[in-house]
Structures are given as C-alpha cells and as structure tokens.
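Table 4 source record.
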Amino acid sequence: MNPEFQRNLWLELAPRRMVVMAVVLALVFFAAALMEGTTDGPSETARWLYYVIVVIWGTRNAALSVVGEIRERTWDGQRLSSLDAGTMTWGKLFGSTIYTWFGGAICLAVILADLLGNRGPLVALIELVYFVGIGVIAQAASLLASLVAAGRRQTQTQFVVFLYQATGIAAAVAVYLIWGIADPAGSILAHKAPVDFIIWWGRAFDARGFLLLSLAIFTGWTLIACYRQMRLELKMRNGPLVWLVFLVFIGLYMAGFDGWLSNNPTFAHLGTAAHRLLLSGTTFGALAYTMVFLEKKDRVRYRWLAGAFSKLRLGSVLGGLQGWMMSYFAALIAGLVLLVWLGQVSPGPDQAVLGATMGFLTRDMAIFVLANAMARRGNGDFAAVAILLALYALLPAILGGMKFDAGLVLFSARASDPVWLSPLVAWTEALLAVGVTATKLALPEDRTAAVRT
C-alpha cells in the first residue's frame, strides 16, 4: 500500500472518529425523516451534507495536506524521502481527505438508496459519478493551489490557506452550475427546464452523458496537474509534452462550442471556421494570463533560454519553455491563422481589432516578466496585475470621464479611424515592453541591485 496514504489512514480513520461520524449522520437523517411536509427529507439532506463534508471540509483538508507539513517543518524531510511524486500526490490527496470521504460515502448510500427506489439504477449510476467527480475535482483543485503557492514559497497564513480552499470550492460551484443545466432538480436552476442535448462540433450529444464525460476528463487533467506540480516541488523537471497535449485538447474542446457565437450578432458574420479559431485562441490567451501569473519568472532560466535559442538548440529551448510561453505562442498562432482567414472572408476592422488584441497580449506577458525582474523579493505578480488594472480599467475610465474617447485606443483593442491605428499602437507598446524587459533581464545581478538601491 502507498505508505503516505497508509500513514494518513492511521491518522484520520481512528475508530472513535468513525463512530462519531456515523452516529451524527444517522441522527441527522432520522430527524430529517421525521420532519413533516417533506417527501424526500433524508435524501435531500444527504445531498447538502455531502457538499458540506466532501466539498467544503474536504477541500480544507486537501489544502492543508502540504501546508500543514510546511508549518510543522516536516515537509523538507518528506521531500528528501524515497517517495516518488505519484506516491506523494495520491497519498496526500486521498489520504488527508479520507475521513471526509467516509462521511461522504454514508451520504451517498442514502442518496443512492432513494434514487434506486424512485428513479432506477441508471439515474443512480449517473448521480454517483457526478458526486464522486465533483468531490475529487474540488479537492484536487485545492491541493493544486496549495502546491503552486508552496513552489512560490508564499507565507502560509490562515487567510492564504482559505484561498486554496476557495479555489476548490469555486471548481465545485462551477461543476454544480454546469450540471444544473442538464439536471435542474436539486440545484438553484430548478425553475428552468433541463437541456436534453448539447451541440458540439455540429453534432447533438445527450447533455448528461456529455457533461459527465467532460467532468471525468477535466478531473483527470486536474489530477495530472497535481502530479506535475508535485514533481516540481520534489525538484524534478517536467517536459513540455503534457502541456502541449493539454493545449491541443482544450483548443479542440472549446472550438466545438462554436454554436454559441453563431447566435451572437457580434460574431455571427464571421462564419463557423472563424468562430472555432476565435474560441481556441481566446482559451489559449486566458491560459497564458493564468500561467504567467502562477509560474515563477526566473531570470536565470530566461537567460539560458535566450542562449540556447541563439545557438539554435531548438530541442533544449522546447524542453525549457514554461506553460505560459506555450499558451502564448498557441494564442499567437491561432490569431495569425484567424487573421489570414478573415482576410479571405471579410477583410476590415475585425482584422485590426484582432491584431491589436495580439499586441496587447504580448505587452501584458512582458509586463508580468518585467514586474518580477524589478521586484525586490522576486515576486512582482501582484504589481503586474495592478498595472494591468490601471491600463484596462482606471485610465480608460479617466479618459472616458474627460470625453477623450480617441485616447482609448492606447489601452484596449477597438476599431479605429484609420483602421490600422489600433494594431499599430498595440504592437508599438508591445515591442517597447519586450525591449525594456529584455534589457532588464540582461543586466547582471549586481547592477540590478544597484538600480534598486
């Protein structure tokens, strides 16, 4: 048996704790059954108790599985043990949360008993997969957030731990709301009719089956992310292949929902192929922003990459690319292909706005790297976020209040007169930001320290 999982079993599943959980839940279900005016009291109560125990309590335990070791100063010893990344990941994720899964299993027994009696075995199986999936993806998201923060060596305060837990809860809420589209019963969407079919890549799929399969796949990707982040925490190197495969998957997955844009008057004129490219490119761009915020911006790594590229060691360069870089290049490629397509179909302002968007994306990536290069303690991500908020929200609001709408082209991609003005401004800012960032990264460490003082 996995030694880390076994250790957590001994710690979490003490007989007294198991008896307390079982007795308390039994009393709650008994009380729910005796309440007047309810037809499915125990089953409905079990559903909400499952969310409380597995999602809320479970995400807390998952967030603390590594953070607790760091607080108690035992994490370094565990990192130096013979346990590999897979053993450590599964042991931490499922071992630290095993007590909440024990309580969740009792709740599931009540839920499934009701479903088997009233709605049949197929519905019971579907609900089982949904409940297990939402629990696993929520806890894995919390563990992933804590591992990312541990890699950045952030202070593990109670508030920060709550943020890790909130990440998992947010993932669960997203799953809950999306599932409610196909199964409004028991969700806040109960007043709406369920969606029976989902259109994906022009074909109609059963909504429940499609959403369940999607939940399973994204849960798998979240578990893979936990494993890869644990490898980094154990000072192992991750190759680019897994992230590239994920980019291909997420690009194809999101492109299949082109029907959303077909009904939107803003994008309806672009055509199906453009809709799919736009969805993929937007997804890649969102991943680029997410990963550039999360990943460590190490000047030594960037200098090494520049040296390897100058010597045309392309294999080494590909192996050293970070997730945000690959996501950015994927967004850029999708944008260029879309530019060519728009030039054949409907050349005009749409191309200019797209070109400006690509320029501002390039500028923003450079701002994140530059902010970290200038930060005294090597963590300038929040400073970069503040700069972007000023560029995209604060300064445009000031210009709008001054009725100087012509100046808005400096801060966001928009149609302009002449049409080439918007992309020209965006790429001028991008090249300036990239140039300043490259110059800053090229400075020796002692000169950088002198500049700071």
